Amino acid sequence: MTASTLADRLRQPEYTGENRCTPCTVVNVVIAAALSLLLGVAWPPLALVSFAVFAGAIYFRGYLIPGTPTLTKTYFPDRVLRWFDKEPTPTRVGSAPAAPATENDADAESPSDEVEAGQLDEGGESAEELDVESSLLEAGALDWDESGDELRLDPAFESAWNDEIERTDDATIRRRLADLTRLDADDISLESRSRNRWFVAVVDGTTVGTWESRAALVADVAADAALGGRFDDWDRLTGEQRSALARGLRIYLDRCPACGGDVRFGSETAESCCRSWEVFVVRCDDCEERLLEVDADALEPEAA
Ligand SMILES: [Zn+2]
After folding, report:
1. How far is the CA of 291 from the centre of ligand 1 (A)?
2. Within this chain, do residues 137 and 77 fall inside the same structural domain, yes or no?
3. pLDDT tens, 207-221?
4. Domains of the chain: total
5. Which of 4, 217, 267, 290 is most buried, judging by how many CB atoms fall within 10 Å of its CB?
6. 10-69 residue pLDDT tens
7. Ligand 1: distance of its center to the CA of 254 in Å?
């Protein structure tokens, strides 16, 4: 057996690379160091040798001590885990890499004066201020129902959106994302991450957008297309703002963009390697695709 096939056999992709869990790795390195020091008391050179072996195990297998995720989950304060956790919050496209994209006027772009400054209600931290709800109302994508209490999709917009969803395939997605991020459509690849929890658009190894599923991405891309003609200042919106608008509409989906199934709303417990937290989720009843996920803390700021 060659060294590289040995390495391949030892490697556990579900715990390494993209999936490596930082808190678990830190805990394991600390344990490895402590064990090596103990062994070093017995015979000093053993400290070095054992640490090298332990570090190799952590590198290839993701952890040294089986069950570390449970240990970490139990003993690390959530605040610390959250700090390290790589679990992405669904981002909006446009938090793009400083890629050598076509030179453009993106930098000169400032948030539109027409849109009122406001607070995104989805825990967004980077989208420039844009009141998603009132912008969507103004554009005629949303309107009030008969009672005047609840927002709903404007019927004309809804059918335009559904038409766009019908005709959205991977090529459409890439083209639309290229337009949003000002990157080259051919450079964008679409893939699943974190054991299918997220669907991402990647350019040169850098994630340029994250969605709950491919279905969620289809909904956003189609919404972006349907919204285009309804804003006077569309060209002045940034990719992040357009993406926030599309995401703001997803809560109003009543059919799954992937299979046409009914959708359900509910609370779920999301889990990464060593952390779990409460989320509000919109999910397809038929294919189980996750269409929207919002951190429960973002909805009830004092809940934690
Ligand atoms: Zn479905």
Report:
1. 9
2. no
3. 888 999 999 999 999
4. 2
5. 217
6. 777 777 776 677 777 888 888 899 999 999 998 999 999 999 999 988 888 877 777 676
7. 11
Q: Ligand 1 center to residue 215 CA distance, Å?
A: 8
- Domain with 29, as residue range(s), is 3-84
What is the per-residue DSSP string for 207-265?
EEEEESSHHHHHHHHHHHHHHGGG-TTGGGS-HHHHHHHHHHHGGG--B-TTT--BEEE
Q: Tell how far the Cα of 262 is from the centroid of ligand 1, in angstroms.
A: 7
Q: At 236, which amino acid appears?
A: R
Centre of ligand 1 from the C-alpha of residue 263, in Å = 8
- Ligand 1 centroid to Cα of residue 298, in Å, is 26
Q: How many angstroms is it from 162 CA to the middle of ligand 1?
A: 14
Quick check: is 120 in a domain? no
Is 68 within a domain? yes
Domain boundary among 253, 280, 298: 253
| Pair 144, 42 in one domain | no
- C-alpha dihedral sign at 19, 21, 22, 24: negative
Select from 253, 211, 97, 226 the least CA-distant residue to 156: 226
Tokens of 302: 């004092």
